[in-house]
Amino acid sequence: MTTLDHPAAETHRHTHGPGCGHAAVLHDDHVDYVHDGHLHREHRDADGVHYDECAKCSCPDCSDSCAVCVCANCTCPTCNHATCQCAHCADDCAHCVCADCACPTCHHAA
Question: Which keywords fit this entry according to its UniProt record (predicted)?
Fold first, then answer.
């Protein structure tokens, strides 16, 4: 991911992690931390470590972060609760392993 996908958050005076005082939310392959009403994730690059804002749900009537989105019939590919649309699968899109997956929001679908 690039910072274009996730805008950089404000500068922190501490490192997010266990015991930092911010609630942790598992989101796909990382952890987001609830910080003053929005969510941050750690981003490491050649310049060191900084925090990015969590992705926003792409559904037209939703403004939640993907880690906490609860919109009904969500079609956003990065939201935690998006469910595989294949008839024989009930996994969430982040963990679906259908060999013949045709779901438009699953991470591994073609």
Answer: Metal-binding, Zinc, Zinc-finger
- pTM of this structure: 0.59
Domain residues for the domain of 89 are 80-110
Instruction: Round the CA-based radius of gyration of the chain to a whole number and report it.
Output: 15
pLDDT of residue 25: 81
Give, as one character, the DSSP assignment of residue 59: S
Would you state the structure tokens that stand for residue 102, as one six-digit string?
């045709």
Q: Which of 5-9, 81-85, 101-105 has the lowest mean pLDDT?
A: 5-9
- 8 and 60 assigned to the same domain: yes
Q: How much is the pLDDT for 52?
A: 83
Measure the CA–CA gap between 20 and 42, rounded to whole angstroms.
Answer: 13
Provide CB contacts within 8 A for 60, sequence distance 6+.
Answer: none
